[in-house]
Design a protein that fits this description.
Elements (H helix, E strand, L loop, with lengths): L1 H15 L8 E2 L8 E3 L6 E5 L5 E7 L4 E7 L4 E5 L6 E10 L4 E18 L1 H4 L8 H7 L6 E6 L14 E6 L3 H4 L9 H14 L3 E7 L11 H6 L32 H7 L9 E5 L12 H19 L10 E4 L13 H7 L15 E4 L20 H15 L12 E6 L3 E6 L3 E3 L6 E5 L11 E4 L1 E5 L2 E5 L8 E6 L13 E3 L9 E6 L2
Bound molecules: 2-acetamido-2-deoxy-beta-D-glucopyranose (8 copies).
One 2-acetamido-2-deoxy-beta-D-glucopyranose binds next to loops.
Length: 518
């Protein structure tokens, strides 16, 4: 009689010490309808509990059951599940011995998790798309593409868990996908997941964590900023935008402290196993640390990779695939707004991705989908279908290793001066239109090509297989130094750039290249 009494007294004294924060639960981004990373990787699962207790985590499906028992240390328990093939649904239960409580997640699928981040063109919702009605009507046909969205939060220090959730793990519905403008759910993220599902035919989990108007510095750690000579804390006052301006401020400049979004919206997610990430950002750096973006962006990718790998105990690949959208267009007739430089810097100044500096990346070119009439401002083109389609081609080739998927437009390998013309050799056959003059040649005896005054427009005179020939400008052969292509913010009309892949689908990205002489 006495022993159980003492035992229960001890137990109640014991539990009263613990606050509500130590009630057994999963961390904020584990929920019903979620997708966990499928085999061969192992999904990491973690949550909160009573320090000293043991938590048993069990996974049960139609024919498979596994249980892991783990201790709660400093209020946190964590386990790595055995690898599970794509499919479901499963039930995931965590039970804590001391309190005899358990929490259960139902309708859990295994598939590939993709993180979607960046600024307003990533936040841009399915409801804002061109053909939104059709896209929203299709949503419920893809119940295995699941969505989750982190709330907009900033923090001065690294958070363990998300401070808020905008959309808990859900099956897609028209209401969730077409929520309030720039709130939920990301069109690029959703279309990427849906197109990918159509190829892979197994569950896809989409984790949206993005915020309009934000520079790359806000998403970067101090350690990666230091690598690029950038200060790790900004001296400006923290920016709290009025609601209308919350997602994009027409004045592109950084009002964000460095690392605040890394701290609040990326760091908490590191412990989740993911397949890869996609990113649509750069506008906010067009006039803010623009010349450093060729360092800060690749450094952020490296740093995220290292951190997700470490945070998942090695389950997320150290070189996980990272896709991004090269900036589209903003201002017509403007060469000085920084977009052309940012596009180039997005590729670490290679012009294409993947490249030596940015391995295992892929890029969707968007320069040929300008949108002067966008109701959301010209900086937010309404056509995200093309962008997402191009990203998925990149993912299929780079992330999934499909051998015969072409995902890159033509890129030049050499430009040569001939007697009367300049020939540009591409890495693949091209389809070109002759009546455009989007090529410029730098004529400068002392190779001063930094000034726009030294660049002369020249027309394309013919093309054949992988060669494009442009006119020689009226200057001396000795002064002819370099060629550049699409080197303005807004060079072409919709789908009207001069050079595409031979099937007409993939535009040549902007480039700048030295001219060799015979
Ligand atoms: C634990 O909970 C189960 C189910 O509610 C109950 O049957 C059992 O008696 C409880 N055990 C203790 C020690 O409270
Ligand atoms: C929008 O719908 C029209 C009519 O079906 C179609 O021609 C067009 O290609 C669609 N646009 C996009 C970007 O999907
Ligand atoms: C943009 O913001 C900066 C900093 O607040 C300010 O100095 C600048 O004048 C603004 N530019 C425009 C075009 O509003
Ligand atoms: C980045 O671009 C700037 C400005 O064009 C240039 O000075 C610098 O050398 C580039 N850095 C890297 C790492 O490419
Ligand atoms: C998540 O990963 C970070 C970075 O490796 C680590 O500091 C943190 O302790 C991990 N959190 C949990 C709950 O395992
Ligand atoms: C840009 O230039 C074109 C051609 O000169 C003109 O038709 C267009 O209206 C200009 N756009 C703006 C926004 O000034
Ligand atoms: C890739 O190859 C397969 C099988 O040969 C073919 O069915 C498919 O159409 C090809 N895909 C592309 C994009 O060329
Ligand atoms: C210029 O190009 C033509 C046609 O490709 C070629 O026949 C000729 O040899 C070239 N001349 C020089 C100087 O490279």
């Amino acid at each position: 009689m006495l022993i159980p009494l003492i035992f229960s007294l001890v137990l109640s004294a014991f539990s009263s010490v613990f606050s509500a924060a130590e009630v057994l639960r999963f961390s904020s981004y584990y929920g019903n309808h979620m997708v966990l990373q499928k085999a061969p990787a192992k999904a990491v699962v973690w949550g909160f509990g009573q320090t000293g207790a043991k938590v048993a985590v069990s996974l049960s499906g139609s024919h498979k059951v596994s249980t892991h028992s783990v201790p709660v240390i400093n209020g946190i328990w964590r386990t790595t599940l055995n690898p599970v093939e794509a499919g479901g649904p499963y039930i995931l239960t965590a039970s804590q011995s001391t309190t005899n409580t358990s929490v259960t997640l139902t309708d859990v699928l295994f598939g590939d998790i993709w993180l979607c981040s960046g600024q307003s063109n990533m936040a841009f919702t399915v409801g804002q798309l061109i053909n939104a009605t059709e896209e929203l009507a299709m949503a419920s046909k893809f119940p295995d593409v699941r969505i989750f969205q982190a709330a907009l939060e900033k923090s001065e220090k690294e958070l363990t868990d998300l401070a808020g959730v905008e959309v808990p793990w859900s099956r897609p519905t028209a209401e969730l996908l077409g929520g309030k403008e720039f709130s939920h759910f990301s069109a690029v993220c959703w279309l990427f997941g849906r197109y990918l599902y159509e190829t892979l035919k197994y569950p896809i989990g989409l984790v949206e964590t993005c915020w309009g108007g934000t520079p790359v510095e806000a998403w970067s750690t101090p350690r990666s900023l230091h690598k690029c000579g950038l200060k790790s804390s900004m001296t400006s006052v923290p920016y709290s935008p009025p609601p209308v301006q919350r997602y994009f401020s027409g004045n592109i400049s950084a009002k964000w402290r460095s690392s605040v979004l890394w701290n609040a919206m990326i760091h908490p997610l590191l412990n989740m196993t993911i397949t890869g990430a996609i990113w649509y950002q750069g506008e906010a750096n067009a006039d803010y640390n623009r010349d450093e973006y060729n360092c800060s962006f690749p450094a952020m990718i490296d740093d995220w990779r290292m951190a997700f790998h470490e945070g998942s105990d090695g389950q997320t690949a150290l070189d996980f695939p990272f896709g991004f959208v090269q900036l589209s267009t903003f201002r017509q007739n403007d060469t000085l707004d920084g977009f052309r430089e940012i596009r180039w810097h997005q590729t670490a100044d290679y012009g294409f991705a993947p490249n030596e500096r940015m391995k295992n990346t892929f890029m969707a070119v968007a320069i040929d989908v300008p949108d002067i009439k966008s109701p959301w401002g010209s900086i937010h083109p309404e056509d995200k279908q093309d962008v997402a389609y191009r990203l998925v081609l990149g993912a299929r080739a780079v992330a999934y290793g499909e051998k015969n998927v072409s995902f890159q437009g033509p890129f030049p390998t050499q430009a040569m001066l001939n007697q009367s013309f300049i020939s540009i050799v591409f890495n693949q056959d091209v389809k070109a239109s002759l009546d455009k003059d989007f090529f410029e040649i730098c004529c400068s005896e002392d190779k001063k090509c930094g000034s726009d005054n030294n660049w002369l427009h020249v027309p394309i005179i013919k093309y054949c297989l992988n060669y494009v020939f442009v006119s020689k400008p009226p200057c001396t052969a000795a002064s002819i130094t370099a060629v550049r292509y699409l080197w303005t913010d807004w060079p072409c009309p919709f789908k009207g750039c001069p050079i595409y892949s031979s099937n007409g689908l993939l535009p040549a990205p902007p480039f700048i290249l030295a001219i060799t002489k015979p």
